[in-house]
Amino acid sequence: MNERRALFPASFDPMTNGHMDIIERVLKLGVFDELVLAVGENPEQSSLFSVDERLARLREVVADLANGHTILVRALGGLMVDFARDIGATAIIRGVRSPRDFEYEAEMGFLNHHLAPDIEMVFLIADPRYAFLSSTLVKQVAQMGGNLEGLVPRVVIERLQSRVATSSGVSS
Ligand code: ADP
Predict the structure, then answer these.
(1) At 25, which helix (H) or strand (E)?
(2) Which of 18, 44, 91, 150 would bridge with 6, disulfide CB 3.0–4.6 Å?
């Protein structure tokens, strides 16, 4: 297999314009032939959307984004580096919004490098327009009935609004 494949793992619960920006910028780098978006569970957060729902939404949104690139969408299983190796990815993409993100990402990056030195961790600094944006924040805005325009893709807005209307609560 000669394709240069990168993995971008995230919870995508829901996907935000910050995730979209990272995806677009990775593709624009022109370093990778294929980008695999892997939907994982964050054990520190209870989820609003099921993994299947998140996969479906991602597929819908990235169809417009691909622009000749190959973007694959998968459920993330097991250790991130093992998953990366299984799918033939040589790099793992992460976004860094803040010193706090950096601290967490560096810790995870060192561990990943220890476990799999053949897989590079690639960090993209967040676009300042989205540096404040997180899925948790988006869920809170949705729950309070706030304006979601500019925070998440349009198809996600409707889903979020109907989900928070039917769910009893949003946890972070
Ligand atoms: P997780 O819960 O697995 O951390 P997230 O979706 O919150 O999932 O984050 C996954 C990755 O996406 C992380 O590397 C995070 O820094 C990055 N990311 C999330 N939101 C943004 C954003 N607004 N700008 C840049 N990167 C982001």
Answers:
(1) helix 17-29
(2) 91
